[in-house]
Write a structure and sequence with these properties.
Layout: E1 2-6, H1 11-22, E2 26-30, E3 46-48, H2 56-64, E4 68-71, H3 78-83, H4 85-105, E5 110-116, H5 139-158, E6 162-167, E7 169-171, H6 183-192, E8 198-200, E9 206-207, E10 209-211, H7 212-221, E11 229-233, E12 239-240, H8 241-251, E13 259-261, H9 276-281, H10 290-303
Parallel strand pairs: 1-2, 1-4, 2-3, 4-5, 5-6, 6-11, 7-10, 8-13
Antiparallel strand pairs: 9-12
Helix pairs in contact: 1-7, 4-5, 6-8, 6-10
The protein binds nicotinamide-adenine-dinucleotide.
Length: 304
């Protein structure tokens, strides 16, 4: 089965590609290398260096006729979206609409979309279910939610089947130190270089960290399951940035002080995703505890 992966040269996308190969699928990567790397894609995988906004996209669908599209390509930086809302919307909303149009025209059997916990916005310190109110606090959150709406209406009007995955904070090997959820890669990279990382606000804000291989598994499971459903993909756990900092410095056996910075615009205080629906309907269960995932991630940063 042919699976077209947009953003397959990026952090999460490249792990999705690896798992697709291991699971017997035939991935094809479309990526403009805006933040991804050619080296992240195995040499035997078909790689097409194209922007999803380009008219060439339709030629790719006509030629390759993918059965499934896993759409990860995006502008992923919350702070950038606040500075550049037009560019964020162009990449994330118009890019998704262009892909959906091709999926409709070429009868794609499943459209799997990488959304984000950013759609929920500020909530109390609780476990967020998929049914909770949507209230994004950044243009990135708006562009992800608007894309979700287009996907659902393409399904209603044109019968393009979908699965939407709303990720918590993803971490692991190959993550860039820029962009959403990159705090673990930033901490490791800085600490290993002997530099002090920044902690914004009091550091007591909490995040739900999910390991990238678990996120890749959710995407591959969604090929066969969870049709026309929205799932939270997180560990239903909370770790404060201060706790995370302690864990990373102690794992790296380095004692480097952090630098306190003011709270950043668009940052939310608490984020923890209830994953019951994904466990029940996608048969997905996160395998990696934070400590185990951090160990693998540290090994990667030490060797890269
Ligand atoms: N990393 C996280 O914690 C997190 C959390 C929630 C959601 N997400 C979503 O997961 C997806 C993957 O994120 P990531 O962390 O792997 O980021 P990433 O930047 O590593 O990957 C994005 C990939 O898309 C490519 N790309 C960007 N714009 C493109 C375009 N117009 N045409 C073709 N390719 C393009 C980039 O070159 C890159 O390879 C994104 O949709 C992101 O919004 C990530």
């Amino acid at each position: 089965m042919k699976v077209l992966v947009t953003g397959g040269a990026g952090f999460i996308g490249s792990h999705v590609v690896d798992l697709l190969i291991q699971s017997g699928y035939e991935p094809i990567v479309v990526d403009n290398l805006m933040s991804g790397k050619r080296d992240n894609v195995p040499p035997n995988v078909r790689f097409i260096d194209v922007d999803i906004s380009s008219p060439q996209l339709e030629d790719i669908f006509a030629k390759e006729k993918p059965d499934v599209v896993i759409h990860l390509a995006a502008q992923v930086d919350v702070a950038y979206s606040i500075q550049n809302p037009v560019e964020d919307a162009t990449q994330n909303i118009l890019g998704t609409i262009r892909l959906l149009t091709c999926c409709h025209k070429y009868n794609v059997k499943k459209f799997i979309f990488s959304s984000s916990c950013a759609v929920y916005g500020e909530k109390d310190d609780c476990s967020i279910k998929e049914t909770f109110p949507i209230l994004p606090q950044s243009f990135y959150g708006i562009s992800k939610y608007t894309s979700e709406m287009y996907i659902q209406i393409f399904n209603i009007l044109h019968n393009v089947p979908f699965t939407i995955l709303r990720y918590a904070n993803v971490y692991g090997p190959r993550q860039s130190s820029k962009g959403e959820g990159g705090v673990i890669s930033i901490f490791f990279k800085k600490v290993l270089n002997g530099e002090s990382p920044f902690i914004y606000g009091d550091g007591e804000q909490t995040r739900d960290f999910v390991y990238v291989k678990d996120v890749a598994l959710a995407n591959v499971l969604a090929i066969e399951k969870g049709t026309n459903e929205i799932f939270n993909i997180g560990c239903n756990s909370k770790t404060s940035i201060n706790e995370l900092y302690q864990m990373t410095t102690s794992l790296a056996s380095l004692n480097i002080p952090s630098i306190s910075m003011p709270v950043r615009k668009g940052d939310i205080r608490y984020s923890r995703l209830d994953n019951t629906k994904a466990i029940n309907l996608l048969s997905w269960n996160p395998v990696y505890e934070l400590q185990a995932g951090l160990n693998e991630t540290l090994k990667y940063y030490k060797s890269s």
